[in-house]
Predict the 3D structure of the following.
Amino acid sequence: MDVLRGNAVSQHISVIISTSAQASAKLPQSKLSISHSSSLHGSSFFALQRIPFAQSTLLASSHFEPSSIKSTHSSVTCSASSPSSSTSSSSRKTPSAKTRRLILLRHAKSSWDDPSLIDHDRPLSSRGKHGAKSIAKKLARLGWTPSLILCSDATRTRETLDIMREAEDGFAEAEARFLGSFYSVAAMDGQTARHLHETVVRLAPEFADTVMCMGHNRGWEEAASEFAGEWVELKTANAALLESKRPHADWGTAFGDGWELVKVLKPDEK
């Protein structure tokens, strides 16, 4: 019998027990008994009892909380897991490869009616509201509804997304994140494509096959052109539809392999 003393009943205990090579090979499932008592010199102690088993090593780690330990004698039994259960728990499924789709959408047309507003806070115009609804319906008809929406936090991009969500349930069901960096990076020459790449890889889950990034020019035109390998013009409420060149298990390899421009989708004119 080995005795471990502890000043706090919530401390971790790790015990490794290795058995003798001469132990019987036909013993049933091996066990480690851990007993707790709080009556030894006013402090807690744990009694650990070895039960031999053949040609195996057990690592048992137990965490005791004060709320779970009573002043009376209590015990916990840990059993060594079988080789089959150990193997199954350690095995992980490899994500399935799928075609990744990226939508780069410029916000709908904004209003300049209120000169007191800073650029970040300008709302949509009546024409912009129509364009946002139109592009949502066109994307939905093509089956390009995203699992994740990454959106600039500017007022005009937020309003564009709000109208798209009202127009089509698929956009309302998608997770949306609003990013200040999507507003600021669009004004920085040559920085948007790299920022979109890094942000999508960081935030998009592996199961998401379609991600929509909503932002501003000039950055969105630059990024769409860089990804597509050709000049892409994005007017307000225009969406560049990009598809990975082959199926990929994650977004990182999709960006590394490159994109093909499927089309530039435009809203109906009011």
